[in-house]
Write a structure and sequence with these properties.
Elements: H1 2-15, H2 18-26, H3 39-49, H4 53-62, H5 65-74, H6 82-89, H7 95-104, H8 112-120, H9 125-141, H10 147-159, H11 166-180, H12 184-198, H13 203-216, H14 219-228
Length: 229
């Protein structure tokens, strides 16, 4: 397997574009270990590779930014343990790595809800962001999940609305907005939560609430939610 990992890394190096790292850095991405490879290129590679849990573990251990994103694309959710998820999440050092791994992999695990609640209690910035990124992703992709799942998340969102760290507050806001667009019932619940957050005497909370309320009251967004029902 080490040989296969090395072969994939060599392919990644061939796709590297140092000029792209400048653009990545402009958007707040940590490029210390980045090669400058765009997501569509990684997705094409993942499609060619297919699911490969052992390869994913090896790619992650390389520490290369894009290799870790690729690892989340090729890993097999059925083989991912909670121990692995907890080990990987503490390696997050950039918002895009956090969002890619949660969207590509961690949102597909049988214990995703457990991770949401556990990571929301952690102090590390990107671990906590991962909790709200999971809420945001599952609000989009868990079409058949009961409303109670997301109502529980709304309570966590309200309790976390004063975390002023940039990558946390933006994820809290993202989760709140996405839950509000899941269906009409949750649209009302998310607006209700945003109104409650708005009353908190805190600058970060007011920003989270105002931005969410603005989007959730957008007529175009409301029309889309009504189509969902």
């Amino acid at each position: 397997m080490e040989e296969k990992v090395q072969q994939v890394i060599e392919k990644l190096v061939l796709e590297a574009n140092p000029d792209d790292t400048q653009g990545m850095a402009h958007f707040g991405i940590n490029v210390d270990s980045a090669l400058g490879i765009r997501i569509p290129v990684l997705r094409a590679m993942a499609k060619e590779i297919g699911q490969d849990h052992a390869l994913a573990l090896g790619l992650w251990e390389s520490g290369i930014h894009e290799a870790r994103i690729l690892a989340s694309m090729v890993d097999d959710p059925a083989q991912v343990t909670k121990e692995q998820a907890n080990a990987w999440v503490v390696d997050f050092d950039s918002w895009d790595l956090c969002d890619q791994v949660t969207g590509n992999l961690f949102g597909k695990l049988p214990f995703t809800e457990e991770l949401v609640y556990e990571w929301a209690q952690r102090e590390e910035e990107f671990v906590r962001r991962a909790s709200f990124a999971l809420m945001a992703w599952t609000a989009v992709y868990w079409k058949k999940a009961p409303n109670e799942v997301f109502e529980g998340y709304l309570e966590v969102i309200k309790n976390s609305a004063t975390d002023a760290r940039n990558f946390v507050k933006k994820a809290v806001n993202w989760a709140l907005r996405n839950i509000g667009k899941h269906n009409l019932y949750l649209h009302g619940k998310a607006l209700e939560t945003a109104r409650e957050i708005e009353k908190i005497d805190d600058k970060t909370a007011r920003w989270i609430a105002a931005d969410a309320i603005k989007e959730l009251l957008d007529p175009k967004k409301i029309a889309r939610v009504k189509k969902i029902g």
